[in-house]
Amino acid sequence: MDRLHDLSCVLHLHSTHSDGTGTVPEIARAAEQAGADVVLLTDHDTLAARRAGEEGWHGAALVLAGHEVSPPGRNHYLAFGLDEEIRHRGLTPAQIVAAVRERGGFGFAAHPFASGSGRFPRVSADMRWEDLECLDGLELWSFLADNGQRLNSIRDAVRFIARPERFVTHPPEHNLREWDRLGASRRVVGIGGLDAHQFGLRVAGRTLRAMSYRRSFEQLRTHVLVAAEPRGELDHDRELVYSALRTGRCYIAFNAIARATGFRFFAERFRGERLEMGGEAAGGGWTLHARLPRVADVRLLRDGEVVARAVTQALMHEAQGPGVYRVEVRLRSHGAERTWILSNPVYLR
């Protein structure tokens, strides 16, 4: 029986505590208006929102404060579950990851594959992570960085800002290939992030933005499958969300083309044994299940190669031995095929 609860998260965003343009209450209100359940704040090198008591429920949106460990240039890291900031001066990428783990936290490499836009470097800079082998979590699909590096003209930039749901198609293939390669040896959790700063101009006490926080929050989401219903208590509800993220019990959804709440991907075998996304077990006797909230083009991949595909609302497939199994789901929207859902893997070793 499925007792998991699906919470949609907006992840990797910045407030006025660093270089964003929105206050935490403004961001929480935008998330609530966009229908997001959880805000995962990641201001650069500061947990000021946490110290200011701004974590917690703001209406229907839960705000949790991590921080983006931000060495000059590359190797930024989204760190969660910490009481203090990581002092990163002089640390290698592996040492940053180790410092977060040693303090009981966890994290994800921020925009680790972003090579940047030569035309618009402020929108998308070269932010590639320099040591992928030390990671157990990464931002697989970055809304700003991965789409920003596709901007080759003013026309492209206008299209992206005005109608992102028509501009965005798929995460870069390179990102997916590298994720598959890393997953062959260990669990590496993939998330979707916005990198939302919402740059703008302050005019007469109001900020005029090219894209509002609310509209940004309607784009890319990371859904977490939590083990119990939130009960409005910060410590309890924070642990629900963080536990799902740590273990990979989550999936990425391009929310702008369709709501994905209700998606499930898991493996089952005799006597009701069940393995959720992020789970690892010895191969043998497993049947894989993908269930969707609507009919779509579902592709089951093993070690990066498609092994089953159907236009359906429910896909079932007997696993043929060990492998890293994950699901990609696509929909046609605005005249083009677009990635809708990316699951985290089930690892059969």
CATH architecture of the largest domain: Alpha-Beta Barrel
CATH topology of the largest domain: TIM Barrel
Q: Which value, in Å, is the CA radius of gyration?
A: 19 Å
Euclidean distance between termini CA atoms? 25 Å
- By CATH reckoning, the class of the largest domain would read Alpha Beta
What's the main sheet like? 16 strands, mixed
**What series of H and E elements makes up the topology?**
EHEHEEEHEEHHHHEEEHEHEEEEEEEEE
Q: Hey, roughly how much beta strand do the residues contain?
A: 35-45%
Unreliable residue runs: none
Number of helices: 9
What's the mean pLDDT score? 93
Number of strands: 20
Query: Which word captures the global form?
Result: globular
Q: How many structural units, i.e. domains?
A: 2
Helix content bin = 10-25%
